[in-house]
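Help wanted!
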Amino acid sequence: MKRIFTLLFLTSLASLALAQVNCDAYKYMGDTLKYEACKEAEKRAGHYQFSYEYQHALDNAIEIDSTFSNAYKYKSTAYLKAGNFLEFMKLMDKAVELDPEQHLIYRGWCRFQFFRDYKGAIQDIELLDSLADYDIGFGQNGFYHLQTTRALCYKKLGQPAKAISILETKLKDPEFFYGPYFNTHLGVLYLDQKSYSKAEKSLLKQQEENDLAENRYYLAKVYQAQGRKAEAKENLEVAKEKYVSGMRFIDPYGPQVDKIYMEDIEKALANLD
Amino acid sequence: MIKRSLILLFCGCLLFACGNEKTTEVVEKLKSVTPKKPYRWVDDIKNDPEIDDPSFELCYSDFTVKQYFNIGDETSYEGERPAIYRFFEENYAPVETDQSGFIRVRFIVNCKGETGRFRVISSDENFEEMEFDPAIVDQLVSITKSMDGWKILPDPDIPTDYYQYLIFKIEKGKILEILP
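Answered by r_m:
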């Protein structure tokens, strides 16, 4: 049941992320120029993000109103997916300059997930947090709360204690929805700190909620460190099965932090023998 | 009777010849189609005879090349990401420099798993365009060119040509991370 709620939540999040701006809102606010730009931008509908037609509609929107920040963001996505950080950042810098509160979430998340720019992502997320008096929400793919993203950035910058502190604070918040991979990341952080019982607890929680190859692999590492060889082996075998069946961290654009591969599982199995 | 048959035969040949001519004409037209727009997709890589390997050919048209994520997993390489990391660890010699930032090498993998049309962009750590020491860039391009594990990706059943890229996060001449 919990899993169904998780999926429903993520679907809603994704829908929100993809939702179109209601152009009429600009009209009601008396901003007819932005209304016209918004209507022009709607002409991209039905075209692929990478296509000339899609980009051209947005260029026209910018031509009508160069302060229509959404147009820069919409344009940036194709460049992001092509790995073109030069164009992506130019466009997103402009979007953020025009409307930081709306666009820092996207730029911050993408800096982390697509370019592993941990310092830049932290700057964006912390600036957004200072501007917002509400929950800053999830990154674009709907799987990572930006506070989890921020914690992972600190971890990658060699500050695991700070990362753990951020995640533990969020866990105490009854309103916090932590996403489908949260407990694996927390478990790995504890594992790295040799806090094995805490790591086991987090990874078993992950297993209960969303059992994937990754949590099994790291749980095996915990058991191996504790000398529980049989349990380690059992979990690595399960990790292998899950990996093959596709029950693992998946993102078509790029790997998540703490993602594992078949070679990692096989090496760990070999190290047990 | 013979005369009528000859006339029919002549007309038939004429029609056949015209039909063949028409078909050839259509095929030629299709081959030379250039969309009436500045580009098909952003960041498309056109063949440049001055820099591209003449032996590398796409299996289909320039206008049907997909993006890696349209048809594959994050990195469709034999041995997955650990194999890519290992390949660069074994072949890249860190360069002594203060330069840090990002380098993207983008290219096309054709339907046979061959690679070509390599292009490079680079920036400093703040994503401002910056040229890296050629000792770094040349190595990365050369090593990327020598990678031979790119998977043939079907779309959905027929192997297709696709764009792939590697982004190298560089710190003082060393590779810190490779994406995607």
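OP: Thanks! One thing I noticed: Chain A touches chain B through 33 residues (CB under 8 Å).
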